Sequence to fold (223 residues):
Amino acid sequence: QKEVEQNSGPLSVPEGAIASLNCTYSDRVSQSFFWYRQYSGKSPELIMSIYSNGDKEDGRFTAQLNKASQYVSLLIRDSQPSDSATYLCALYTGRRALTFGSGTRLQVQP
Amino acid sequence: DAGVIQSPRHEVTEMGQEVTLRCKPISGHNSLFWYRQTMMRGLELLIYFNNNVPIDDSGMPEDRFSAKMPNASFSTLKIQPSEPRDSAVYFCASSSWTEGLAFFGQGTRLTVV
Fold:
């Protein structure tokens, strides 16, 4: 089992809709969780971090963490074509560097 | 803040040649990471340094790969000899604290022909 699992997509949503991206992980001692966005040909950039159970909102983005079920999700409200990218889930256990999922490709249709 | 700086941005080399990738982390960051990204395997950690000391190199694929960090502001990843299967985008990232947050450089796209 991979440490971090993501559906590769593509996830296609119409402009203005809510995009829901999900991630599950296997290591229960994971402490910190991050969502990175990566445009084609570019480097990953951090968009959200979450450390405790519940929701964390930042503008149009909401990260959700459920440690008991070992999943973390990212909601993007009012999706825009500029949100089209690959979204990488990453976690930190304190023992190694960040471990990344394979990413979910999001396509927002105008 | 200039961010993490990598060079070169693109490298095309022939099989068997030595390749050296360079990274300058963000000033003040004490952790540095080398990742490799391919379509097949995604983003893989190769090695990371803390305070210039290699902490975990279990991701280095084989002895052809080596990495050094002679000081807090510079690191290299060397492949000798290079092979076509080494073709990938190599990212350097740095971090200033222990909660894992990392900032990435623009990457080096390596093509070995």
Observations:
- The mean pLDDT of chain A is 92.
- Chain A touches chain B at residues 31-32, 34, 42-46, 49, 51, 88, 90-92, 94, 96-103 (CB under 8 Å).
- The two ends of chain A are 36 Å apart (CA to CA).
